[in-house]
Amino acid sequence: MTTTDDHYRVKRPLTSREIDTVLAAVNDTAATAELLTRALLNRAMRAVFTALLAGTGTTWDDFDAEHRLDPAAFAIPTAQWQTIVEAITSRAQEWGTAVTLALDLINVMPSAYEDPNIAAPVVQTVDRRPYVHDMHITREAVDVIAACDAHVQALGACYGQDSQIYLDALHSWHHQLTLLFTMNMGADTHISKDGTLSLYVTTASGYVFGIIFHGHRRHCTVDGCGVTINDNGTTPAGTEPAAGHQHAPSYPLDAPQPGQWSYHS
Questions:
Q1: Residue 242 and residue 213 share a domain
Q2: Does residue 200 lie in a domain region?
Q3: What pTM did the predictor assign?
Q4: Distance CA 96, CA 247 (A)
Q5: Which residues, in sequence order, are CB contacts of 204 under 8 Å at separation 6+?
């Protein structure tokens, strides 16, 4: 039953039949990556909003570029919202556009609200990823990957494998390295060097990102100081310590630089 409140035009769960219609629209879509937005998003959103607009006196076809539908004026339970999003992004894995599409979905899906009485629909999953993931790694990028691993091991040897410095670096590097193998952005990935400890990645979908090492700045730990200390022990001009104050570096001059890797698009 369609209900309204002061915030939403329509706020209700989709029926089982309506969910089935939406999922059928998603799974029956056949298109190339170039036609993905028009073919997949339009079919899926038509099914969703056709259901939500039922009984309102308005249909999907009443909206156009001049009279736009406001997705935020409609709401379905979070469990159903997540099921639909997962179905759409899973379908897009065939074209390697799942990540890009997930960002688009935020703007076109209805809102979501918590309803503990609505369980997530049981959906049969289909693995649509290509069978083989081709990865092209330049020899310079191979050297970077080896250097990153060596840097992590050096941090463990210097600061201890129980230290937060080592664990932060290890976990961040392994997490970012795993991103290289995801097929959500296509199954033809090119990896090149982007710095001594950083990589540049181009995916089959055209999406590019970097895996960047962010080294911690060495600084003086004396209260009220915090000045930068270079690898040779020097400090920026005009930052000489006051009388009786010897700079205390946050990590030794001859030690590997602490830091973590992160993803940047």
A1: yes
A2: yes
A3: 0.69
A4: 52
A5: 96, 185, 186, 187, 188, 189
244-253: pLDDT as tens digits: 678 889 999 9
Q: Over the stretch 130-183, which tens digit does the pLDDT of each residue have?
A: 889 999 999 999 999 999 999 999 999 999 999 999 999 999 999 999 989 988
Half-sphere exposure of 70 (CA within 13 A, CB side): 6
Query: Does any domain span residue 122?
Result: no
- Sorted by sequence, the CB contacts under 8 Å of residue 66 that are 6+ apart come out as none
- Are 106 and 138 found together in one domain? no
Dihedrals φ, ψ of 136, to 5°?
-115, 115
* C-alpha span between 207 and 100 (Å, rounded): 8
Instruction: Provide the number of structural domains found in the chain.
Output: 2
- List strand residue ranges (DSSP E) for the chain, in order: 10-11, 74-77, 111-113, 134-137, 188-193, 199-202, 208-215, 259-264
Residue 262 CA to residue 71 CA, distance in Å, equals: 33
Q: Which two tokens stand for residue 110?
A: 């209805």
Residue reference for tokens 């201890």: 160
Contact 10, 52 (CB under 8 A): yes
Tally DSSP H helices, then E strands, for the chain: 7, 8
Taking residue 250's Cβ as centre, other Cβ atoms within 10 Å add up to 13
